Recover the amino acids of this structure.
């Protein structure tokens, strides 16, 4: 382990220790809950876009399904919350498998179809029988409200998703995914099974936001179609991950911490201009830092590869 | 190198046809490739040479005909299945993965290998050193010159231990020094029993490396033989050599 790696691991350990004691400190619990939520979302998104090059514009659908599965199972079937959250992950992954044929599409075609699927799901959920989904009013989970426990669940999921990205990046699967991203046809000629490897990445990238959705539903104790399938969830996930640096391990973490902090700061001071400023940040990002923080740093200091990648 | 009596060819192609719209790119190609040989395929642009390779390694599915490798039919198999059978490939325009490191590019075909990753990595380092690219192992694939990218494609076939290697214009735009390294590597691989199908417009290389030359024109084989036979063939002179 070189000194850059040692420093990186020490920083991560310190950050995790801080997040662990946050509930004991006089700081906003929701702020840090959502920071971990966005880190988790950005890390998961990185697997399918950063490593494989597929841009799912309807990524919110996994999060949305996760929120509803947990809420419906707990409120209608009295399933304990941890089991309901686990079921959210399973059903989100099953949904990814069901829509996997769309992975044959590439580029903007895949993005548009995925976006359309998220819209269809939102309408479907909103039109489920009222006694199941609560229609446009949604479902309240106030009797299950345990902010502290759900906070630690999110901390656990964030660590798990970070480790998953690290494993993917260092594994043979990670090399295969990067090959597919760069040139799927050439990867295939070299013996890489493109559909199978792509599907693995897609299912991992779907499972994580589905579980995150379940935990977030528990934390807020309310779900409704407009919030659960809000396209801003996709937009923010993309922007946060890109700002940090897609295809790197640490980039989306940096991106989510920085951009969520900035977003929260702007929201607190300029509530009306919040989206305008976010839009300007996206323009700035695409124009001046298309590789994100980690990608730009890597280009300038290639020796950081061991830490960043 | 003449095929020993009674020995099955490594690759057997019979009556291969492939069309694009109304154009027949391959029109009844039949060809046997003996083991441990270099067969050069030459011909004018658009004569069907690259389509021929694309049919062998599954990028295109031919409409008619058969391709048999070590007794197994290749038609209908996916490119990754064909690669696993032991057929490697280089491309006319090198297709190196630009955003991953040079060493990971070399290791890409052995991701499913049962050998230990450390051993494979060491082998990749040795291969890179042998072709004078040891210092570039951690660079991105996109940072390499065109010639270096083509060498990386050849090293992939080395490390994958492919028995049949399809080379599509490996010498086009390559610096003479790198070309000499290519010659060396191909001859060395040949010594270890590998078989090559070589497409090239570089006739010096074709004459220097190949055992047999097959000439394509308008999707058909118009001639085949040794250097002297090809040079003397009127159809080849008219269609290609001028």
């Amino acid at each position: 382990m070189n000194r850059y790696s040692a420093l990186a691991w020490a920083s991560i350990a310190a950050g995790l220790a801080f997040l662990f004691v946050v509930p004991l400190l006089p700081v906003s619990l929701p702020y840090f809950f959502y920071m971990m939520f966005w880190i988790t979302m950005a890390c998961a998104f990185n697997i399918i876009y950063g490593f494989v090059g597929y841009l799912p514009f309807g990524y919110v659908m996994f999060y949305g399904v996760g929120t509803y599965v947990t809420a419906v199972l707990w409120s209608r079937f009295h399933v304990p919350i941890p089991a309901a959250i686990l079921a959210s992950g399973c059903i989100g992954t099953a949904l990814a498998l069901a829509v996997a044929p769309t992975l044959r599409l590439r580029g903007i075609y895949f993005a548009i179809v995925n976006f359309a699927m998220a819209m269809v799901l939102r309408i479907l959920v909103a039109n489920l029988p009222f006694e199941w989904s609560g229609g446009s009013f949604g479902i309240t989970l106030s009797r299950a409200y345990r902010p502290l426990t759900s906070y630690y669940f999110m901390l656990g999921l964030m660590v798990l998703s970070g480790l998953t990205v690290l494993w993917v990046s260092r594994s043979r699967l990670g090399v295969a995914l990067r090959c597919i991203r760069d040139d799927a046809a050439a990867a295939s000629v070299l013996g890489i099974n493109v559909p199978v490897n792509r599907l693995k990445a897609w299912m991992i990238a779907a499972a994580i936001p589905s579980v995150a959705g379940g935990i977030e539903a528990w934390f807020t104790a309310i779900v409704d179609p407009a919030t659960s399938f809000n396209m801003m969830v996709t937009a923010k996930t993309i922007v946060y991950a890109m700002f940090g640096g897609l295809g790197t391990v640490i980039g989306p973490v940096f991106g989510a911490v920085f951009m969520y902090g900035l977003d929260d700061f702007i929201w607190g001071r300029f509530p009306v201009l919040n989206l305008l400023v976010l839009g300007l940040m996206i323009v700035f990002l695409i124009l001046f830092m298309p590789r994100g923080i980690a990608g730009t740093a890597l280009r300038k200091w290639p020796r950081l590869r061991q830490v960043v990648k | 190198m003449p095929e020993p009596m009674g020995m099955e060819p490594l690759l057997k192609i019979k009556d291969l046809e492939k069309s694009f719209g109304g154009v027949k790119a391959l029109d009844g190609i039949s060809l046997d490739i003996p083991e441990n040989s270099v067969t050069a395929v030459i011909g004018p642009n658009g004569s069907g040479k690259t389509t021929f390779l694309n049919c062998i390694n599954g990028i295109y599915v031919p409409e008619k005909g058969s391709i048999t490798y070590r007794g197994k039919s290749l038609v209908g198999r996916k490119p990754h299945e064909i690669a696993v059978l032991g057929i490697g490939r280089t491309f006319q325009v090198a297709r190196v993965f630009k955003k991953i490191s040079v060493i990971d590019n070399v290791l890409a075909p052995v991701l499913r290998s049962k050998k230990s990753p450390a051993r494979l990595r060491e082998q990749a380092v040795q291969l890179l050193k042998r072709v004078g690219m040891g210092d570039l192992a951690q660079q991105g694939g996109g940072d390499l010159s065109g010639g270096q990218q083509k060498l990386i494609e050849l090293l992939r076939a080395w490390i994958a231990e492919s028995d049949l290697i399809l080379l599509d214009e490996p010498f086009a735009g390559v610096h003479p020094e790198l070309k000499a390294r290519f010659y060396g590597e191909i001859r060395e691989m040949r010594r270890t029993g590998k078989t090559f199908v070589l497409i090239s417009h570089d006739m010096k290389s074709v004459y220097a490396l190949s055992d047999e030359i097959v000439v394509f024109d308008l999707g058909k084989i118009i001639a085949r033989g040794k250097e002297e036979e090809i040079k003397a063939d009127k159809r080849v002179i008219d269609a290609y050599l001028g």
